[in-house]
């Protein structure tokens, strides 16, 4: 057991703090806190994600986070809404704005089990692919379909359940690298430079 901090003893206080920090690092490396990370997945993801003005809201299908699906994303006033299908997206946009959205993108919603801990969040398109291959059922085909079209940018939603059944949805935003003038490179490559700012959480009965 590390020595407890002693009021007024700076050396002992620093030693105790360092000992506790090393203990937590060791526990994280041995995945002792993975369930805690998954329960509060949304908070950790937001802390890690690239902050931007783009917000993503997910309207899950009937199976929620249990099933991978090919949804549709609609952009409205700086917000992206992800729906289970094209019909759902069209009705929502028409009810909200009075007109159907002309900006609908195929968007995989991929069920991940288990949800990753922060040190295993995907930083690149290759890491995203590896995560999907290792932890999803049916997500690999959806991701391959998306990448086959070589889009300049795309959305991929990772969905999963925490140990206490709370659902989490987190969007990543793969896009092509930029050239020196800030234009997307004309090649079949995507990178993941961050994540959309908002994460949707829904309790399940």
Overview of the structural elements:
The protein is of the alpha/beta class and 205 residues long. It has helices spanning 10-29, 34-39, 41-48, 86-97, 125-135, 139-148, and strands at 55-58, 69-76, 79-83, 104-111, 156-161, 167-175, 191-202. The longest helix has 20 residues, at 10-29. It is elongated, with a radius of gyration of 20 Å. The termini are far apart. The model is unreliable at 191-205 (pLDDT under 50).
What is this structure, in a nutshell?
The chain contains 6 helices and 7 strands, in the order αααβββαβααβββ. The protein has helices at residues 10-29, 34-39, 41-48, 86-97, 125-135, 139-148, and strands at residues 55-58, 69-76, 79-83, 104-111, 156-161, 167-175, 191-202.
Distance between the termini: 42 Å
Numbering strands along the chain, what is their spatial order in the largest sheet? 1-3-2-4-5-6-7
The shape, in one word, is: elongated
Please give the oligomerization state of what you see.
single chain
What is the arithmetic mean of pLDDT?
75
Percent range of helical residues: 25-40%
Share in β-strands:
25-35%
Low-confidence stretches: 191-205
- Give the radius of gyration: 20 Å
- Taken together, the total number of domains comes to 2
- Number of strand segments: 7
Main beta sheet strand tally, sense and closure: 7 strands, mixed
The helix count comes to 6
Helix-strand category: alpha/beta
Element-by-element helix/strand order: HHHEEEHEHHEEE
């Amino acid at each position: 057991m590390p020595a407890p901090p002693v009021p007024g003893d700076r050396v002992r206080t620093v030693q105790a703090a360092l000992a506790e920090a090393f203990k937590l690092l060791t526990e994280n490396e041995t995945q002792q806190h993975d369930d805690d990370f998954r329960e509060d997945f949304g908070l950790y993801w937001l802390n890690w994600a690239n902050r931007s003005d783009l917000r993503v809201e997910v309207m899950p299908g009937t199976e929620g986070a249990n099933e991978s699906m090919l949804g549709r994303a609609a952009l409205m006033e700086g917000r992206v809404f992800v729906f289970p299908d094209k019909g759902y997206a069209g009705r929502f946009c028409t009810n909200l704005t009075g007109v159907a959205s002309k900006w609908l993108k195929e968007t995989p919603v991929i069920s991940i089990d288990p949800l990753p801990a922060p040190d295993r969040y995907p930083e690149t398109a290759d890491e995203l692919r590896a995560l999907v291959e290792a932890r999803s059922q049916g997500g690999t085909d959806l991701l391959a379909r998306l990448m086959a079209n070589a889009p300049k940018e795309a959305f991929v939603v990772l969905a999963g359940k925490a140990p206490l059944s709370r659902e989490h949805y987190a969007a990543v935003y793969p896009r092509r690298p930029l050239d020196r003038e800030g234009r997307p490179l004309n090649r079949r490559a995507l990178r993941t430079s961050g994540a959309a700012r908002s994460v949707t959480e829904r309790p399940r009965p």
